[in-house]
Amino acid sequence: MPNVTEAQAAETLHTTWVLTNEDLCLQWQEQVVEDERLRAECKRLADEEAECERLALQLEENTARADEKKKKNRSKHSTIILRPRPFTNDEEALVSEFALQKIDSGKYVELYYWTNQGLDNALINYHTRDDDSMVPSIGEDGSTVWVSAATSKPAAGVIADRDLSPVDFAQAIPCIMAAIEERDWTKQRVLMLAQFWGAIMLHHYWNSNDLLARCAILLYQEEQRRAWHSAILSSNGAWDISIIDEPTLLVLTSLYLEHH
User: Fold this and answer.
1) What is the maximum alpha-carbon separation in the chain?
2) Contact 161, 169 (CB under 8 A)
């Protein structure tokens, strides 16, 4: 092997270092470009995901607003069946707009509106109403809202639940249950009220020959339902109204006997 002088060795090392350094610099530049590409791709994907989430949230909000609008304007958005006007005696009964507004808001409303007398009254008012004027009212959030005058006034001569006849009471229950189910009440509340009214009509007071006992169970029904609807909006919440509170029923019976 020929001898290598120091100068030759130094030149070889210098050449090797230059070539190696240039290769490393080239690799580094390529890596910088690749890292920048990856960062740009990650940002693009993140932006696309954020935009998808924004559009999904916007769609959800728009759908919720549309559903709420449909609930408030049920008559405008209900589907009309393409058919001639049916000639039948089984057409849906016309119910007081005031009563239906109470149902929509989840508030207490008298069963009278679903008795024959209440339905006849609603039909008469519908035929004799001059206009559908708007009046100011207080919304659930305390703000002023404009509502139909027909939904803001109770019917004249409303009969309290406690003064209904057993026949009127029994006739009203399936009608008001149908109205509640149609107006998007939760299944739990619908079932609870159905069981409550069933328990009322199966109670021995209801089937008693004693008129005062039947009046007492009707009074209990009214008082409990009023309190239940009020409690729903309270901080303590409501209770399972379908469970008959026998001690309270006894107290109401005693009070009723004292005044009659």
Assistant:
1) 136
2) yes
Nearest residue to 196 via CA among 227, 168, 164, 163: 227
Check if the beta carbon of residue 170 is closer than 8 Å to that of residue 111: no
pTM: 0.59
Read off the tokens for 64. Answer: 């919720």
pLDDT over threshold 90, residue 28: no
Q: The tokens 């004693």 sit on which residue?
A: 210
SS3 category, 145: strand
User: DSSP 3-state assignment of 138?
Assistant: strand
**Cβ(207)–Cβ(216) below 8 Å:** no
Angle between helices 187-202 and 211-232 (to 10 degrees): 170
Mean pLDDT along residues 193-217: 93
> What's the CA gap between 143 and 147, in Å, rounded?
12
Amino acid letter, 5? T
CA distance 227 to 210: 26
